[in-house]
Amino acid sequence: MAWRWMWRRSSITQGNTNKNNYRKDEEMNQKVVDVYNGMVVKFKELIREHELDHNDYQALVNWADELGRAGEIPLFMDVFFETHALQEMYKNVEGTEPTILGPFYLENATEIENPGVMPKRDDEKGDVFFFSGTVTDVDGNPLANTKVDIWQADSNGEYSGFAEGIPAENLRAVLFTDENGKFEVQTIVPGDYSIPTGGPTGKFLTWIDSHPFRPAHLHFLFKPQNGDPLISQVFFEGNQYLDNDVANGVRGTLITKLEKHDGAEKGLETDFYTAHLDFKLRLQDKPVYS
Ligand code: MBD
Ligand code: FE
Q1: Residue 248: which domain range?
Q2: How far apart are CA 95 and CA 98, in angstroms?
Q3: Is the CB of 249 under 6 A from ligand 1?
Q4: Which ligand sits closest to the CA of 246?
Q5: What is the pLDDT of residue 17?
Q6: Is 231 contained in some domain?
């Protein structure tokens, strides 16, 4: 597998109140400086606590170097830290819980009809799956014309744009909610996702005796016409990794029921699955810190 991690997070929060995404040509946000500085302090303590010798120190540097060279810094950070950043931000606020964006979002996905079919290969493996959602504000008023970005792994748990042999646009789409705030896509049931086991993040997971899996999930980025974007995911009841997600991204309110249907119901040759979730967006364009 060749990994092609990209510059990311460029414009997701643009237009939002948060102007603190770092770019090389900008001053660094002071809170971020403080966190890195805290890390330096903690690292010094850890080096003393564990009585590192110079060999140990070289091993420490080498693994971090490998992480960077493999392009896995976003993966590592998102797996271990992103969920905590979100939990800090969204304490005590109403609406659907956000969860990890993760390292596999790509801008400019194919725009499809609503209801529509996610771009997929002619021989795309996996069970046929209709996912529907209703997008409202926190009071239940439908949010028409909300931009819904959806991306997911294929049935092997691989993301287009990051794994070889998958067309770039595969299983990624953008659509807009209808006048009742509803949307529906036909896709395939995603597979459980495994962190690439051969890379530095994967090696680290084996060293700390952790498995590399995330439960099967769909990713969403909602952009209402007015208000904050919502970054979230949807999971499926009964999955074996719900309570031990390597990235700690599962929220109870985001678990849906995958219901199996007889193909005949829709004139399909094979059985199919459906799932649904109501998404409630906060509209006030103000900081979410309470
Ligand atoms: C993923 O698919 C993902 O969603 C996250 C958050 C981290 C790693 C892989
Ligand atoms: Fe994912």
Answers
A1: 95-281
A2: 9
A3: yes
A4: 1
A5: 39
A6: yes
Are 159 and 222 part of one and the same domain?
yes
Joined tokens for residue 183: 């949307």
pTM of the model: 0.89
Verify whether ligand 1 is closer than 6 Å to residue 214 (CB atom).
yes
Residue nearest to atom 8 of ligand 1 (CA): 102
What CATH number does the domain containing 167 carry? Answer: 2.60.130.10
pLDDT confidence of residue 24:
60
Structural domain count of the chain: 2
Each residue of 193-232: pLDDT tens digit?
999 999 999 999 999 999 999 999 999 999 998 877 899 9
111 with 161, same domain: the answer is: yes
Regions of the chain with pLDDT less than 70: 1-26, 91-92, 284-290
